[in-house]
């Protein structure tokens, strides 16, 4: 059974009486442990697809099965629980609370879930991305790459099955971007499913599969034949 199964999904936005077709009947399956890059020009539907995969938006028509559960039938509270327990999110802008130390930013998903031993788990997640010594630093005291590592630690802290990364290297220089992609690649090697949105070919080359969007449709879906592989190394939340 596919971990992600999107079937004939359409998404229509209505703005000022005008219908905008963001997705036009897409179908997509992602297996456990895959590393998939979603690509396409601005307005192609890739971000809308990511929002639906992340249970942040609902399709207008079609179904989305997440690990066998049809999330299109879930209420808001059940969707929130699904997001918190099954999904980890990494965004271009990091989305860290600016006046909150790194370790407390990482703890946030655990707070929402009412999880015990939050501090120990958050520290372990920070250690896993090499930021244990920076646990008490505020985001403003960290570099862009370090902030993104905090965001990845936060995504990992609930041991999700899937990490959804939306342009995670968009604000980083090429060297730091490579370090972040090495980290995501090692997570993939350990069995976490990674779905990455990017417009950069060199970043997409780190994935094992490319899905190309155009005008709200999937126009190609094929394996990466010459991918860049990260050095082996442990990353354990």
Low-pLDDT windows of residues: none
Give the strand order, joined by hyphens, for the main sheet. 6-7-8-3-9-10
What is the strand tally? 10
Query: What assembly state would you assign to the polypeptide chains in this entry?
Result: single chain
Gap between N and C termini: 26 Å
Shape, principal axes of CA atoms: globular
Strand pairing plus helix content: what structural class? Answer: alpha/beta
Instruction: Provide the CATH architecture.
Output: 3-Layer(aba) Sandwich
Residue fraction in strands: 25-35%
The CATH topology comes to Rossmann fold
Radius of gyration from the alpha-carbon trace, in angstroms: 17 Å
Describe the structure.
The structure is a single chain. With 237 residues, the chain is α/β, with parallel strands linked by helices. It has one domain (31-55, 76-223): Rossmann fold (3-Layer(aba) Sandwich), CATH 3.40.50. The protein is 32% helix and 28% strand. The protein contains 7 helices and 10 strands. It has a 6-stranded mixed sheet with strand order 6-7-8-3-9-10, sandwiched between helices. A 4-stranded antiparallel sheet has the order 2-1-4-5, with helices on one face. α3 packs across α4, α4 (118-128) packs across α5 and α5 runs parallel beside α6. The two termini are 26 Å apart.
